[in-house]
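Researcher: Please generate the 3D structure of the following complex. Treat every line as part of one assembly.
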Amino acid sequence: MREQPLKEVTQLIHAIKMGLVEGSYSITNKTLDIFKYIIMSKSWQSADALMQIVRAQSRIMQAALPQETVTSNIARRILKLTREEFDLLQAKVQHFADDSQASLSLHKLVTQTSENSVSVDYSIPQQGLREALLDHLQEVETELETSSENISVQAEEHIHSSEIILTLGHSRSVENFLKRAIKKRQFLTIIVAECAPACRGHNLAATLANEKNVEIIAIPDAAIFAMMSRVNKVIIGTHSVLANGGLRAACGAYTVALAAKHYSVPVIVLAPMYKLSPLHLCEQDAFNMVGCAEDVINYDSLPARDAKVYSPKFDYVPPELVTLFISNTGGHAPSYVYRLLTELYHPEDLEL
Amino acid sequence: MGEEQSSTSSAAPKQKKQRQRNRPRNKRNRLQDNEIQSPNESAMQKANSNPNQNGAADKTREQVMAEREAKKQAKLAKKQKTTTPTAVETAAATTKPATTIITEVEQTTITTKLTTTTTTTTKDNVVAAVAAATSTKVAPSSEPPDSNTGEKTRDQIKAEREAKKAAKQAAKTAKTTGNNNVDTVTQKLNNLEVAPSTAAPTDVEKKKPALSKAERRAIQEAQRAAKAQGQTKKPNAAPTADAKATEKKLPSVITTPAAAVKESKRESESPAKSPAKLSPLKTERECKVKLFNHLVRANHDASLFINDARVHPSIARLGVQYAERTIVGSNARCIAFLHALRQVVQDFETPAKKEFGRSLDGAVKYHVEHLNKCRPLAVSVSNAYKQFRNQLTQLPADTPETELKEQLAHFIDTYVENQIGKAAQAISSSMQEKITDGDVLLTFACSSLIQYILEEAKRRKVAFRVIVVDSRPFCEGQEMLRRLHAHGIPCTYVLINAVSYVMPEATKVLLGAHALLANGYVMARAGTAQVALMANCHNVPVLVCCETHKFSERFQTDAIVYNELCDPNQLVMNAKCCLNNWHKSRLTPLNLSYDITPPELVSAVVTEVAILPCTSVPVILRIKPEIGY
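Model: Done. Output below.
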């Protein structure tokens, strides 16, 4: 069966591909809007039908934008919500409220797949499901909006005064987090690795330099190891968090994490919950993509004619190099990510 | 710092004085603190009659120093009076008149201080005025009408107190006539004061700005010399040194009597505080990262000191090439240095009645210092220089100069040939065994030695390819890529960020080095350590190729203690880059030259002697004299 994409979905895909919509947050937000529109539309009668539509559309987006995992993540969130709301309503009807998935225990985690899949039939039309879903979606939206704020609030718990912090490239979460830290703590020194060839680190450095009481040092990527011996903490953003607690982060993150490991510097990764993806990828070849090589070496230079030039965009950082994840719900160890995933998504939705 | 206590005065007040004197020194950069404390201090002043602290907010350090100097001079004058009464005959015999005279002196000093802007002139005035005082030629008429009456009166009070105190001290010291130094000091002081006494303080003030640059430099040099002399802690030692230096320099600056005084004046302060040096220091601090405050950035404006008549043109040219980085890479720098050195040796003329070896040593030392100013010397260069000096000391004394020059030229040629040329060949031949068909060799930035090895492998028709890893801002890898491309070696080119992307392909990592440190650390272009780290993580062997002439006896455990800072503007990409106005914000781009790779990340070091683990560097260093030179 071949699904047709909705008009909104094609528009969004186009916008993302053209770079009109940038950053995980805005992509997530836009995707959520689409799913909200789907839920509000009358095209579905049962939970099952809705889930079919959501799955189909998210599959299309995933195929079109393989590097943007957040779209699938949010689709999984919606699917899980639908299941929850449906179960809740069913439970109300059948008067056995304790079987709702709102209270997950380890025992149920282990057993639910076998039981629930048999027992729950989502194809029954359910009254009030649409309203309940929209209500719940509102919650998700608020969570999304406040996620950056919630992460940055935790800055005080992790940063003391006169610390030397190293970061790489430009992540919005990191920017807010550091701004908060600068306000609350004095004499911070923030080292920003530029992350060539795009050198987005320069943006971050320039933005942070507007704050008071802080010393910003912009370094080329080659100096990461040299500076690491003086760094107290590495704080980086990530593109997505993989199921094993590894990172799919901006190119260069692996070097930073390795250097930090060499000097036993804690690596703190800021990752809002919507970046958690249930993907089991253990090497960069599984997801990496190469960008335009023009920035790396001029096309008109003589050696560029024969040389192979790569400009990869992502790096895989194994979980053992990450010390801590800070999400909008708090801090998590990399080994705990799988648990967050089971709480966040329904096991049946891991494969869309 | 010249302290004026005489050895005989009781210990307790001495300590007190010292403490007070130290105070403004500590606070020179904290004017606000001074302002807050000034009421306190004025209270203390009443007890101690020490004027130095009052009004510290508007007084620069130089001014304070000037006052101190004035005190010192006054006291010496008193001493002089007791030991050689003829010199200061005309000065009042009792302490009371002396006090008034000095008060007047101080007044003139302070008023001129208020009217002039530069601190140097005021200092001169103080001395000039004191000189005038000793010859009882205080000219109240030279006191210009002053508008800042409020400040003036305060300063007057201060000056009076100061004078009183000075007089008291003088009276005290006058009692002790057993001091040996006094006579000489006073005599020298007489000499010193002959010159300025002819000029009225106002004259001095006018003449001051007219001092030429050369004179100032001479003064600074004298000052430095005097400082070195005056390091002894004996009381009166500093004035003696001052006087000596003044005597030494007098002939050259006799035309401007003020200069002589200025010298003696300046000598009492450390060279770092002279205004000429203050301004560059300040600008440097602005664009410096706190962690690297200890590193002196090479003076990139080589034109400042390039027109030095004592520097040989070949060295001057080399200096510019170093500074502009047209000659980079430790081998290239070493070869260029040795060639220039040979020119210097050839053109060297032994001064009359001097020994060839020693005078050449001095000249070469001067040249090396010049190069060091242009850009900190590479380890290879300083090693070559060390060997050259070693050679100089072994020169036979009874051989004609031309023959000696030939010997030295021959030494330089063999050094280049053996240490660089043959070493590269030896390393290359041992590396050829390591490069086999199908190899993917990863290298970082540009190394002439690695290039040589790869070209040799290509000549042997080994099928291999090279991954060149590069980093901004130097982008030396592009040069490497160009050279390898010219030899038809298939290349892959990535930036250092992407090294994790290409590392799985690599079978060996070949790295060049700037130097090998005695603790086994490899000092190389910034980024090398990261490549080695990544290679280690992917279990790819890391081979560092380094000739033994680059081995250094230095120990270093991080890249921060000793490094070279390059132009931070190189980090700015283009006109649109956000770093463009970094000067105006709290942002500092940092451009490090080198980093240090720990030995555990390096599988082996390939030298012309053998393929060794990093930790064997000290062994090589110890046996080195026996293995070739």
